[in-house]
Amino acid sequence: MKKIALYFLMFIFICFILPALLTKNDIATSALDEANKEKESEAKQENQAESGTQYTEYNYENYGTIKLLHTETGEVEEVKLDDYLCNVVSAEMPADFELEALKAQAIVARTYTIYKIQNKKHDNADICDDSACCQAWISKEDRLNRWDENLRESNWAKIEQCVYGTAGKIITYNNQPINAFFHSNSGGTTELPVNVWGGGSDMPYLQVVETSGEDAYSQYASEVQLTQDELLAKLKEKYSDIQIDFNNDEDIKILEYTDSNRVKTVKFGNHEISGTEARSIFGLRSTNFEITKQDGNIKFTVKGYGHGVGMSQTGADSLAKQGNNCEDIIHHFYTDVEIKEVNDLN
């Protein structure tokens, strides 16, 4: 009889009490999620009030929510597109850059994101947080902690102003999002994609353009100096049969330049390699370099930082300082493009 009563109580617990507890827990979790979203919304409104700007939330017909892969954990997070872009812009461009430069970065990053969604690389996500694969991303908490305490609120408000203030805007060519490449500093002149990746004929909007004022930034100039043994050791990692006569000026020589004055082909002894490969082997900031011998060492004098294709971030800031707005900046770096609402895409 006791066993029957025990079984009856277990039946009651499993069928009625346990589901009620689980439902209560789900409701509590859902309420917590809603509370967190409400707090984020309130914080966003406070930032808008502080900056004196109010943003009407853009109604994305598509792409309003994206799946973001966090590469370190493998977690895939669903996040609103423009909330994600605040994290991207704050990771990709200094907050003390001009407002119009940051707006241009927001539009470029939004365009790049949608291009990635349309040309998926990840099976379970739209885009990842690895800058070597997609574009940089940093959590709001980490970003705030890296800024001086007295600048945190104003910097984040500035980032939000640039992202939410340009909501929905993307760069198009033939009414499709472009592959909106960008980099740190062009050294004064941008590069064609064919000279970096060997392709790009389908991206006629990426041309060579000149930008004044980039030499005022720390990213413009750098040097790498190696001993003869260090140079040989780095080359031997790729070319085990490398031989160089360091007394012969013809054994270390730039043979060919691209139209943007970057190194296309360079000779090291019995091997001729591309400028992009030399950049990778020797850890140079760009392929815009010269080589000199100095006291038995080999010195690379480098201009610019990055692959040089598309928008230069310091170039964007320089143009903004000269009075250009974000759309002027975009049209400077991307040829024959239009800035459209994402909802207007075919």
What does it look like?
- The chain is an alpha+beta fold and 346 residues long.
- It has 2 domains: 65-215 and 307-344, no CATH class; 221-303, no CATH class.
- The protein contains 10 helices and 14 strands.
- It has helices at residues 2-51, 81-92, 99-118, 140-146, 152-164, 194-197, 228-236, 275-282, 313-321, 326-333, and strands spanning 65-70, 75-80, 127-128, 169-173, 176-177, 182-183, 221-227, 252-257, 263-268, 271-274, 288-294, 297-303, 311-312, 338-341.
- The longest helix is centred in the first third of the chain and has 50 residues, at 2-51.
Rg = 26 Å
User: Average pLDDT value?
Assistant: 89
Sketch the topology as an H/E string, one letter per element. HEEHHEHHEEEHEHEEEHEEEHHE
Enumerate how many helices there are, as a single number: 10
Low-pLDDT runs: 27-33
Q: How many angstroms does the end-to-end distance come to? A: 72 Å
Largest sheet: 3 strands, mixed
Number of domains: 2
Strand order of the largest sheet: 2-1-3
Number of strands: 14
Helix percentage = 40-55%
Beta fraction of the residues? 15-25%
